[in-house]
Amino acid sequence: MADREHHGAVGDALTFEAPEDGGARHWLTRFNPAAKLVAALILGLGLVPAVDAVTGGVVLLGVLALVPFSGLDRRTLLVLGGPFLLMGLSSGLVNHLYGVEGWEGALGAAVRLLAIALPGLLVAAGSDPTDLADGLVQRLRVPERPAMGVLAALRLIPLLADQWRTITLARRARGLEAGRNPVRMVTLFFGRMFALLVRAIRTGTLMATAMDARAFGTGPRSRSRHSRWRTADTLLPICALLLLVSAYALSARLGTLVLLFS
């Protein structure tokens, strides 16, 4: 089994593995990843009906307060959170341009998207992939095949990051650079994305073949590790539910609560 390392950067490569003991400060890494996933699902699904900025904002602030204790360093958080931030800003802009609620609706859409995405990001990047797969199978009774698919996907994130860097350097070596031309920059970006997609499909196909050869998902398997579930793991989803209820209560008290399809 590979040694676990703290989240961070080694050279140009990102590592996404949680420290084994979590450290005194990074206490969030001590929770069972399955418990963190349940808490993230409670927050994500619970925010679907609310489209106002206050409800999503309360949840977002609550989750942001946990970031310093998640074990994620700033670089990893910026790299992984950047696309979600861009999605939130884009969603807000689209709602402002084509929606009927103006800036209020745009802000609500952006905050809601970020509040839904951030808990999942902390679970995926703040948990050891093997522990997460063990928790899914042993504690949440998820079938082995999709659980192993989650494990494989999380293990592929650093590999895809390295492949993206290799593609960029290879194209630069061939003289394919955008310079200061924004149109060419966008064109080259989508070209690199297509090349990465092709590599990801090839890697996924090889991994699926290897997993089938090892008979994953075909029957009961022995366990080399036991997924522990403690009292704190039960309290974490309860705290997430309380945060969600508090967000709705505060929004309703302020008169800002807006429900979907209302």
UniProtKB/TrEMBL annotation:
Name assigned to this protein: Energy-coupling factor transporter transmembrane component T
Alphabetical list of InterPro entries matching this protein: ABC/ECF_trnsptr_transmembrane
Keywords associated with the record: Membrane, Transmembrane, Transmembrane helix
Source lineage: Bacteria, Bacillati, Actinomycetota, Actinomycetes, Streptosporangiales
Cellular compartments annotated: Membrane
Membrane topology type: Multi-pass membrane protein
Keyword field contains Transmembrane helix: yes
Transmembrane segments: 37-65, 77-98, 105-125, 182-201, 235-261
Organism from which the protein derives: Nocardiopsis lambiniae
Pfam families: CbiQ
